[in-house]
Amino acid sequence: MNLSKVPNIKNLDSNNFFLLAGPCAIEGEDMALRIAEKVISITDKLKIPYVFKGSFKKANRSRIDSFTGIGDEKALQILKKVSETFNVPTVTDIHEVSDAALAAEYVDVLQIPAFLVRQTDLVVAAANTGKVVNLKKGQFMSPSAMKHAVKKVMDSGNDQVMVTDRGTMFGYQDMIVDFRGIPEMREFAPTVLDVTHSLQQPNQSSGVTGGRPDMIETIARAGVVNNVDGLFIETHFDPSNAKSDGANMLHLDHLEGLLTNLVAIRKTVNSL
To answer: Is the pTM of this model over 0.85?
Structure first.
C-alpha cells in the first residue's frame, strides 16, 4: 500500500507512524466534528499522518437493544462533512456487500471488521471499489493466515490494502496481543495495531463489552517499539456515555499526552 495515495493525508515526510482515530460510532454531527477538530490539532502539531475513523453503523452487537447507528445515509454524510471541513481522509467499516459501494461514495478507506474478514464476497466488494481496504485480523486467526485475506484484495486488482491486529481471544472474556505477529504481517502488508479493541473484555454476562483503557499506553508503546506502521485508537470526550465501546476507549483529553510519548519513542526507534 502506498499511503500517499490516501486522499488528503498529511505529514507523510515525518517518518512517524500513521494514525486511524475517532469515535467508535458516529453519534451525531457535533460530536464527530468536535472529536475530529481536536485530533487534527494534535496530529498536525506532532506531524502524524491522520485518518478520521467513525463507524456509520454497528452490526456486531451483543444485544438486540444495543446502539446500531443514527441512520446509514445520515452518518455517512457526517463522515463526508468531517472530510470536507478539515480536509482529512476518513475510514469506516462495512458489514454487507451492498455497504461497499454505498460507503465508498463518502469515505476514503473501507474497513472489514475482524469477525467478517474471511467473508470473500465482502472483501472482494470492498476491493472492487478501488478504495484503500483495511482488513482487521480475526480474533480467531493467526497472523500468517491474514496473507490470504490480503491476497483476495490484490487478486481483485487492488494493491491498496493494509492489515490491523486487534488482539486474539484469550479464553472467553479477554484479549491478548501477540507482538510476534507484527513483523510477520508486515512481510505482506502495512500493519496497524488496534490499541483500544485489543483491550476489550468481550462476552460479559451483562451483554456489554468491558475493557482495560488503563493499559492503552502499555500496548501502544509496545507496538511502536516493534515498528508497527500505524496505530488505531478509538477516542471520545465522554467515554462513559459513548453509545458503543465506551469501556475500552481513550478519553480525548489523554490523547495528546499519549501521542507525544509515542512520537518520542518512534524517534528513538528510528535512530537505532
So the answer is: yes
